[in-house]
């Protein structure tokens, strides 16, 4: 219980401070956007590099973890896509936004600080970050830019859309930083002590600032009443918070038999929906209101389900 409290108090403390500053109007949505950019572009790439560089990667666990996650991702994405089209009446592009909101969790601002605080969780968690940062972003980008009308019948147009989506995803700063860290770990790269100090110093800013921004974003969504379409949240949140983590954990356990990998897989896929879902939906102008509702409601519910999950798992 002591370790759980030691983890949750700093976690929720930083989130509440961020939310409080928004309520008191010390920071606004523009401040949140700028700080989010710092975390995404600067702090988290350093954190990803350092966590992976200092981790030992088990090849067998890596394969089983990746296979379980990718298979579960394919199943959940397909189910959400079909249901979004049939029940919510979304277009292909709008359904892409729904798929992204249902499969991309708040790994950057919320997940990494948790994984970094639990012994043995950082390496498998960051492996999943790599796959989410490439596969999930590629799927969502491809769907949200899917050719329409006459262009939809052109095979070359579809292939171009997919290729561009993949290229965008692999250029993500976090993907690049984490990939370089994985390479550094595999070749046993040890930078000089002053360089290590600099890398660690930059990496340490990611967790507190990321959690602060998460609280600021959540408060801004609720205060702005950007809850969007409740029907969409009711349909998608069970997939994001319950079904996706359950299926992923079951498959990872089947493929690896490793309790740590299974616990991390459940944590990773059960995180609240990422604020990046709203950003991506806004960039492509697809189902912005619905995605905002999923994220706003999902953040509150997700923090509750996350706390329940950690309460159950960490003592074991």
Automatic annotation (TrEMBL):
This is AEC family transporter. GO terms for cellular component: membrane. It is found in: Membrane. The chain crosses the membrane at residues 35-52, 61-83, 95-118, 125-146, 198-223, 235-255, 261-284, 291-314. It comes from the Bacteria. The lineage of its organism: Bacteria, Pseudomonadati, Pseudomonadota, Alphaproteobacteria, Parvularculales. GO terms for biological process: transmembrane transport. It is a multi-pass membrane protein. Coiled coil: none annotated. Keywords: Cell membrane, Membrane, Transmembrane, Transmembrane helix, Transport. Its main location: membrane.
